[in-house]
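Case study 2.
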Amino acid sequence: MSVEELVFGFLKENPGSNPREIAEALGVGYNRVRAALYRLRERGLVIRTEKGYTVAYRAPRKMRREDKGRLVEKVKSDNLERLSKEVDKLSKKVSTIEKRISEILNLVENIRIEIKNLEIVEKRLSKEVELVKSRINKLWEYLGKLKFKGYEKDEFLSLLSGEKVLSVSRAKNIINKPLEEYISEDKVILVSSYVIDKEFYNEFKKLFPLPVDKVKNLDEKSRVLLRAMVDEGLAYLHKGKEYRLI
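Prediction:
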């Protein structure tokens, strides 16, 4: 049984539960539970209330076989689309490299003809050929690096590292793979309707307990995260004096 089915079944019997309660009751990792809740919310099977998550009134008692089939087909379709995009990118890079190689080969051929026709200046030309060869080798090294440039770094994670907090809708327009994969791989933190940089989230938690009079000193990203944590049930206001973690 998948994590989505376990979480869905638990919420039918225990409406109003938060992610941590679900994870502890099912014995499933907290991030996996949050990723499952995200997918169930996307499909309209569960909703989040002030008390916690609960099954939507129009949701069936359990996930039907055809729902599973559609989920599998969607994953396959997403993977195929992502693979197609990667192939297109690689094709463009290969085309560029082939063009540059052709230019280099033309340059080498021109040099060969020039050497043949200018034997009287062989010594001087020989030095120029060695210089050209050196430049070609450097260019080949550059092309080798260029070919794989862009696969070494995840642009989405780089952007999130700088922005710290992104809305889910904006994140979806940037990433080229499902958001839940980043959540399951523990690369990002999902809080309410925001995607949070993991390092920024962990550092922010060190501020708790957070006095109310210190909130005004927080930057905008930190205030957004605080509101999201309160909405998600990860933090609460204690006696009107300080924010505490659940």
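Confidence is low (pLDDT under 50) at residues 147-151.
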